[in-house]
């Protein structure tokens, strides 16, 4: 019996999202491969060159590596929005008193639906882990997001990462209890690292527990323009010393932008050797960092281009949406890339940057990369855009590839 074949005409695919571009075929136009997409046995297997102008862009489902579904869509009820990171932490802490199960289900569910509409199939949300004496006692937001995770449709993955102060992890018993809860709930062990007392002790305990239980690690680190902060380099040093093999992701790393080029190069070399992924978060860092009463100062973005040139895996995340940390924003990785293009000078061709919200973002979360060639039809999405530039410029919904197929045999 022959395997059914289908064709999707007038398609463009970014070369950066093809595992073997030479074998995949199609016509090369700069950073894109164009033609008719051939699907066989439910998978994308090849491209056939065509003289027709491409009208549609096909990419793997998008990835959201860093978001806060427990906080999102709360801005309209917070009176004291505005100011720097510490002001945002204080304002959001007051709002936490309103976090009932119904409230969390409503707001987090809305954020999740928005991510789905944007074309995401993998999402990691950070959840504030309170400072109770029992490190294994989960807050209500953790429980609610767990309920949401249990009810997800097939094909959608939502990871929960605990966000606690690294100073609490400096207590070995507390760290063990927290990590044990992460292992029980298939969670990610995370920490907020910002020049805390006993920072190195907390980080070492995080690595010990992650290694013991096979956990992923995710850190909010050096979210400041203070060049004396050492969290990024300390994490890299501990990872190299211990030989830790699990996935490590760092968010923010804003302080790196204030270091001399030689220091950035030294830290970047360690990050690359330790296989650490760095997640840049343009929206929240641009809003909170570099505040000055007369004019904005440093913008708080980690040096994306320098890190990538040094071999560091850099990805992009949404971070906060309509809360005390960022009063605007959208749950859409495209928005993060669009903002990074402008703020971090990510020059064309734009197709080269797409791995930061697709293939490389999956790797940063400890998942295998997914490229267009060989991907199942259900793992691909389609946009009515002739190019990546048009896709980033226009507000257009993600469409399931299956909805666009004609059913015609080749």
Structure notes:
The strands form two sheets. An eight-stranded parallel sheet has the order 6-7-8-9-10-11-12-13. The protein has helices spanning 21-24, 85-95, 101-118, 140-150, 166-169, 172-184, 199-213, 231-242, 261-273, 282-288, 304-309, 333-343, 359-364, 388-393, 401-404, and strands at residues 5-14, 27-29, 32-40, 43-48, 56-60, 62-67, 120-128, 157-165, 188-193, 217-221, 248-252, 277-280, 313-316, 380-383, 399-400. The radius of gyration is 21 Å and the shape is globular. It is of the alpha/beta class. It has two domains: 5-60 and 371-404, Urease, subunit C, domain 1 (Roll); 62-364, Metal-dependent hydrolases (TIM Barrel, Alpha-Beta Barrel), CATH 3.20.20.140. It is built from 15 helices and 15 strands.
In short:
This protein is of the alpha/beta class and 410 residues long. Helices cover 34% and strands 21% of the residues.
Task: Give the helices and strands, then pairings.
Elements: E1 5-14, H1 21-24, E2 27-29, E3 32-40, E4 43-48, E5 56-60, E6 62-67, H2 85-95, H3 101-118, E7 120-128, H4 140-150, E8 157-165, H5 166-169, H6 172-184, E9 188-193, H7 199-213, E10 217-221, H8 231-242, E11 248-252, H9 261-273, E12 277-280, H10 282-288, H11 304-309, E13 313-316, H12 333-343, H13 359-364, E14 380-383, H14 388-393, E15 399-400, H15 401-404
């Amino acid at each position: 019996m022959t395997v059914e074949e289908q064709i999707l005409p007038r398609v463009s695919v970014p070369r950066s999202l093809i595992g073997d571009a030479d074998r995949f075929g199609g016509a090369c136009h700069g950073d894109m491969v164009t033609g008719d997409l051939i699907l066989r046995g439910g998978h994308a297997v090849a491209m056939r060159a065509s003289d027709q102008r491409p009208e549609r862009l096909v990419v793997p489902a998008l990835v959201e590596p860093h978001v806060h579904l427990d906080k999102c869509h709360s801005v309209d009820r917070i009176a004291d929005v505005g100011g720097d990171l510490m002001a945002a932490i204080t304002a959001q802490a007051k709002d936490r008193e309103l976090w009932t199960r119904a409230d969390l289900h409503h707001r987090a569910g809305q954020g999740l639906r928005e991510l789905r509409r944007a074309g995401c199939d993998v999402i990691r949300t950070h959840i504030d882990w309170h400072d109770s004496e029992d490190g294994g006692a989960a807050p209500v937001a953790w429980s609610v997001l767990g309920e949401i995770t249990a009810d997800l449709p097939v094909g959608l993955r939502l990871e929960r990462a605990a966000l606690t102060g690294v100073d609490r992890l400096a207590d070995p018993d507390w760290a063990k209890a927290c990590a044990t809860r992460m292992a029980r709930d298939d969670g990610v062990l995370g920490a907020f690292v910002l020049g805390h007392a006993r920072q190195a002790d907390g980080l070492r305990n995080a690595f010990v527990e992650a290694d013991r239980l096979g956990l992923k690690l995710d850190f909010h680190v050096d979210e400041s323009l203070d060049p004396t902060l050492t969290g990024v380099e300390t994490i890299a040093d501990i990872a190299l010393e211990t030989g830790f093999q699990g996935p490590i992701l760092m968010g923010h790393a804003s302080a790196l932008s204030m270091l001399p080029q030689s220091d950035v190069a030294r830290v970047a070399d360690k990050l690359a050797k330790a296989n650490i992924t760095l997640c840049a978060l343009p929206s929240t860092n641009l809003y909170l960092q570099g505040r000055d009463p007369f004019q904005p100062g440093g913008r708080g973005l980690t040096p994306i281009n320098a890190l990538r040139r040094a071999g560091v895996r850099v990805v992009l995340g949404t971070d906060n949406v309509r809360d005390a940390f960022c009063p605007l924003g959208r749950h859409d990785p495209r928005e993060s890339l669009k903002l990074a293009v402008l703020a971090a000078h990510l020059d064309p061709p734009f197709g080269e940057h797409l791995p930061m919200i697709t293939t490389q973002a999956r790797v940063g979360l400890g998942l295998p990369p997914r490229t267009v060639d060989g991907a199942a039809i259900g793992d691909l999405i389609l946009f009515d855009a002739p190019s990546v530039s048009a896709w980033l410029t226009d507000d257009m919904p993600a469409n399931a590839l299956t909805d666009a197929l004609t059913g015609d045999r080749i």
